[in-house]
Amino acid sequence: MMDVGRHTSIRRLGAQEVRQGATTFRDKSSYETRVDQRAMPDGRRTRRKRLQKEQAGSVHDVVPDDTEPSFQLRSYTTIPSRLAVGEAFDAMLHVSAAVAYEADMMQDTLAAGQLFGAASLLTVDALDYVEETPRGILSGLQLFDTVHELDDSDTPHATGPTSLSPLGYISFPGMSIAAPGVYMLRVTLHCMNSALTSTSEAGPQTVQVLLSDIIVVEGR
Questions:
Q1: Tell me, what's the pLDDT at 33?
Q2: CATH number at residue 206
Q3: For the chain, what is the domain count?
Protein backbone atom coordinates (compact mmCIF):
# COMPACT_ATOMS: atom_id res chain seq x y z
CA MET A 1 0.00 0.00 0.00
CA MET A 2 1.33 3.43 -0.90
CA ASP A 3 2.16 6.00 1.78
CA VAL A 4 0.21 9.22 1.20
CA GLY A 5 1.06 10.55 4.65
CA ARG A 6 4.11 12.68 3.95
CA HIS A 7 5.15 15.27 6.55
CA THR A 8 4.31 18.40 4.56
CA SER A 9 2.88 21.79 5.45
CA ILE A 10 1.07 23.99 2.98
CA ARG A 11 0.53 27.72 3.60
CA ARG A 12 -2.40 29.37 1.88
CA LEU A 13 -1.53 32.43 -0.17
CA GLY A 14 -3.42 35.25 1.52
CA ALA A 15 -6.26 35.12 4.01
CA GLN A 16 -9.00 32.59 3.38
CA GLU A 17 -12.52 33.56 4.40
CA VAL A 18 -14.71 30.63 5.40
CA ARG A 19 -17.98 31.03 3.54
CA GLN A 20 -21.38 29.45 3.92
CA GLY A 21 -22.53 27.22 1.06
CA ALA A 22 -20.46 24.95 -1.13
CA THR A 23 -16.71 24.65 -1.47
CA THR A 24 -14.94 23.67 -4.68
CA PHE A 25 -11.63 22.04 -5.47
CA ARG A 26 -8.62 24.09 -6.43
CA ASP A 27 -5.37 23.11 -8.08
CA LYS A 28 -2.47 22.70 -5.64
CA SER A 29 -0.64 25.51 -7.46
CA SER A 30 -2.84 27.95 -5.49
CA TYR A 31 -0.76 27.25 -2.43
CA GLU A 32 2.78 27.71 -1.19
CA THR A 33 4.31 24.41 -0.18
CA ARG A 34 6.67 24.39 2.80
CA VAL A 35 8.14 20.97 3.48
CA ASP A 36 9.50 20.54 7.00
CA GLN A 37 13.30 20.32 7.12
CA ARG A 38 13.33 16.79 8.43
CA ALA A 39 13.68 13.42 6.75
CA MET A 40 10.68 12.14 4.85
CA PRO A 41 9.54 8.56 5.57
CA ASP A 42 11.73 7.25 2.75
CA GLY A 43 14.78 9.18 3.97
CA ARG A 44 14.65 11.92 1.33
CA ARG A 45 14.49 15.64 2.02
CA THR A 46 12.45 17.99 -0.12
CA ARG A 47 13.37 21.63 -0.63
CA ARG A 48 10.98 24.45 -0.02
CA LYS A 49 9.09 25.33 -3.17
CA ARG A 50 6.67 28.04 -4.09
CA LEU A 51 4.17 27.02 -6.72
CA GLN A 52 2.88 29.61 -9.14
CA LYS A 53 -0.87 29.93 -9.28
CA GLU A 54 -2.26 28.72 -12.60
CA GLN A 55 -5.40 29.74 -14.38
CA ALA A 56 -8.35 27.40 -14.17
CA GLY A 57 -8.23 24.72 -16.83
CA SER A 58 -4.52 25.06 -17.53
CA VAL A 59 -2.32 22.02 -18.07
CA HIS A 60 -0.24 21.14 -15.02
CA ASP A 61 2.94 19.05 -15.19
CA VAL A 62 4.12 17.70 -11.85
CA VAL A 63 7.69 17.67 -13.22
CA PRO A 64 8.49 20.25 -15.93
CA ASP A 65 9.29 18.00 -18.88
CA ASP A 66 8.15 18.40 -22.46
CA THR A 67 7.86 14.63 -22.86
CA GLU A 68 5.70 14.05 -19.81
CA PRO A 69 1.92 13.83 -20.27
CA SER A 70 -0.15 16.23 -18.23
CA PHE A 71 -3.07 15.08 -16.12
CA GLN A 72 -5.93 17.11 -14.72
CA LEU A 73 -8.55 16.56 -12.04
CA ARG A 74 -11.85 18.44 -12.03
CA SER A 75 -14.64 18.05 -9.52
CA TYR A 76 -18.07 16.78 -10.54
CA THR A 77 -19.43 17.52 -7.08
CA THR A 78 -19.28 20.27 -4.48
CA ILE A 79 -18.56 19.74 -0.80
CA PRO A 80 -20.35 21.72 1.91
CA SER A 81 -18.06 24.28 3.51
CA ARG A 82 -19.61 23.34 6.87
CA LEU A 83 -20.30 19.80 8.07
CA ALA A 84 -21.28 18.17 11.34
CA VAL A 85 -19.06 15.48 12.82
CA GLY A 86 -19.94 12.21 11.10
CA GLU A 87 -22.06 13.86 8.39
CA ALA A 88 -21.67 12.02 5.09
CA PHE A 89 -20.49 13.69 1.89
CA ASP A 90 -19.33 12.49 -1.53
CA ALA A 91 -16.60 13.47 -3.96
CA MET A 92 -16.47 12.54 -7.64
CA LEU A 93 -13.74 13.84 -9.92
CA HIS A 94 -13.25 13.89 -13.66
CA VAL A 95 -9.82 12.78 -14.92
CA SER A 96 -8.31 14.15 -18.15
CA ALA A 97 -4.91 13.92 -19.78
CA ALA A 98 -3.03 15.75 -22.51
CA VAL A 99 -3.11 14.01 -25.88
CA ALA A 100 0.68 13.54 -25.92
CA TYR A 101 0.67 9.75 -25.80
CA GLU A 102 -0.70 6.81 -27.76
CA ALA A 103 -4.34 6.05 -27.07
CA ASP A 104 -3.65 2.31 -26.85
CA MET A 105 -1.10 2.90 -24.09
CA MET A 106 -3.60 4.84 -21.98
CA GLN A 107 -6.33 2.27 -22.59
CA ASP A 108 -4.00 -0.49 -21.39
CA THR A 109 -3.09 1.61 -18.34
CA LEU A 110 -6.75 2.10 -17.43
CA ALA A 111 -7.61 -1.54 -18.04
CA ALA A 112 -4.78 -2.65 -15.74
CA GLY A 113 -5.89 -0.30 -12.96
CA GLN A 114 -2.57 1.57 -13.12
CA LEU A 115 -4.15 5.03 -12.83
CA PHE A 116 -5.94 5.59 -9.54
CA GLY A 117 -6.83 8.22 -6.97
CA ALA A 118 -6.59 8.47 -3.19
CA ALA A 119 -8.54 10.76 -0.85
CA SER A 120 -6.94 12.09 2.34
CA LEU A 121 -7.45 14.92 4.81
CA LEU A 122 -5.34 17.92 5.81
CA THR A 123 -5.81 19.92 9.01
CA VAL A 124 -5.64 23.73 8.91
CA ASP A 125 -4.38 25.48 12.05
CA ALA A 126 -5.02 29.02 13.33
CA LEU A 127 -2.02 30.36 11.39
CA ASP A 128 -3.31 28.92 8.09
CA TYR A 129 -0.68 26.18 7.99
CA VAL A 130 -1.80 22.78 6.77
CA GLU A 131 -0.57 19.47 8.16
CA GLU A 132 -1.41 15.82 7.69
CA THR A 133 -4.48 14.68 9.61
CA PRO A 134 -4.03 11.56 11.78
CA ARG A 135 -5.33 8.36 10.26
CA GLY A 136 -8.88 7.43 11.16
CA ILE A 137 -10.31 10.97 11.17
CA LEU A 138 -11.44 10.62 7.53
CA SER A 139 -13.46 7.53 6.69
CA GLY A 140 -15.61 6.45 3.77
CA LEU A 141 -16.92 3.57 1.71
CA GLN A 142 -13.65 3.81 -0.22
CA LEU A 143 -10.70 6.19 -0.05
CA PHE A 144 -8.92 4.65 -3.08
CA ASP A 145 -10.44 4.26 -6.54
CA THR A 146 -9.13 3.31 -9.97
CA VAL A 147 -10.13 5.51 -12.90
CA HIS A 148 -13.40 4.32 -14.45
CA GLU A 149 -13.69 4.90 -18.18
CA LEU A 150 -16.35 7.25 -19.50
CA ASP A 151 -18.95 6.09 -21.97
CA ASP A 152 -18.05 7.12 -25.53
CA SER A 153 -21.19 9.26 -25.73
CA ASP A 154 -19.94 11.28 -22.75
CA THR A 155 -16.43 11.80 -24.13
CA PRO A 156 -15.97 14.99 -26.21
CA HIS A 157 -13.32 15.04 -28.91
CA ALA A 158 -10.16 16.93 -27.90
CA THR A 159 -8.51 19.34 -30.34
CA GLY A 160 -5.24 21.29 -30.41
CA PRO A 161 -1.73 20.33 -29.29
CA THR A 162 -2.37 21.09 -25.60
CA SER A 163 -5.94 19.80 -25.43
CA LEU A 164 -6.99 17.51 -22.63
CA SER A 165 -8.67 14.24 -23.46
CA PRO A 166 -11.29 12.98 -20.96
CA LEU A 167 -10.26 9.61 -19.52
CA GLY A 168 -12.82 8.79 -16.85
CA TYR A 169 -13.68 9.49 -13.25
CA ILE A 170 -12.86 8.53 -9.67
CA SER A 171 -15.38 8.47 -6.85
CA PHE A 172 -15.20 8.60 -3.06
CA PRO A 173 -18.73 8.07 -1.69
CA GLY A 174 -19.97 8.21 1.88
CA MET A 175 -17.01 10.00 3.41
CA SER A 176 -17.22 11.56 6.87
CA ILE A 177 -14.93 13.38 9.31
CA ALA A 178 -14.83 12.11 12.88
CA ALA A 179 -13.55 15.17 14.78
CA PRO A 180 -14.37 18.90 14.86
CA GLY A 181 -11.87 21.19 13.19
CA VAL A 182 -10.90 23.01 10.01
CA TYR A 183 -9.82 20.78 7.14
CA MET A 184 -9.09 20.48 3.44
CA LEU A 185 -9.79 17.36 1.39
CA ARG A 186 -6.90 16.24 -0.81
CA VAL A 187 -7.29 13.97 -3.83
CA THR A 188 -4.07 12.57 -5.30
CA LEU A 189 -3.88 10.92 -8.72
CA HIS A 190 -1.25 8.18 -9.00
CA CYS A 191 0.08 6.34 -12.06
CA MET A 192 2.03 3.07 -12.09
CA ASN A 193 2.92 3.14 -15.80
CA SER A 194 6.44 4.62 -15.97
CA ALA A 195 5.97 5.36 -19.67
CA LEU A 196 3.41 8.01 -18.69
CA THR A 197 5.38 9.55 -15.83
CA SER A 198 8.85 9.89 -17.39
CA THR A 199 10.48 8.13 -14.46
CA SER A 200 12.24 4.84 -13.94
CA GLU A 201 11.26 4.64 -10.28
CA ALA A 202 9.17 1.65 -9.27
CA GLY A 203 5.78 1.99 -7.65
CA PRO A 204 3.02 4.59 -7.96
CA GLN A 205 4.03 8.11 -8.98
CA THR A 206 1.98 11.20 -8.16
CA VAL A 207 0.83 12.91 -11.36
CA GLN A 208 -1.73 15.39 -10.01
CA VAL A 209 -3.03 16.69 -6.69
CA LEU A 210 -6.23 18.63 -6.04
CA LEU A 211 -7.15 20.38 -2.79
CA SER A 212 -10.59 21.48 -1.67
CA ASP A 213 -11.40 24.80 -0.09
CA ILE A 214 -11.77 25.05 3.67
CA ILE A 215 -14.18 22.61 5.33
CA VAL A 216 -15.33 23.53 8.85
CA VAL A 217 -16.50 20.52 10.86
CA GLU A 218 -18.58 21.25 13.95
CA GLY A 219 -19.59 18.98 16.82
CA ARG A 220 -23.16 17.78 16.94
A1: 32
A2: 2.60.40.3960
A3: 1
